[in-house]
Amino acid sequence: MPFPPENCFVLTAASVRAHVPRSSGVYGIFSRIQWIYVGECGDIQQRLLSHIADTEPGIKRYGPTGFSFELQSDVSRAARRDALSGELSAQCTERFL
Fold it and tell me: Which CATH superfamily is domain 5-92 in?
């Protein structure tokens, strides 16, 4: 099951700060036509802000426009990330960023 639709937001620093807690979980970054990346971390807000600030081409080459997230415990988030990555056919993985 993909991310809940009510947790989809525009990928801007202001939107991340307004909607995302500094909590453990999984997140996905998407463009208008595809899922780009699914990740997991201990602080979703901080990680999304770092993706926005990143000057490397990795995710940016796909034209990200939005993100989604869900809270997950430290124990379950890697498995959930892997399930979502497969289900959503994300374009990037950690090794390609």
Answer: GIY-YIG endonuclease (3.40.1440.10)
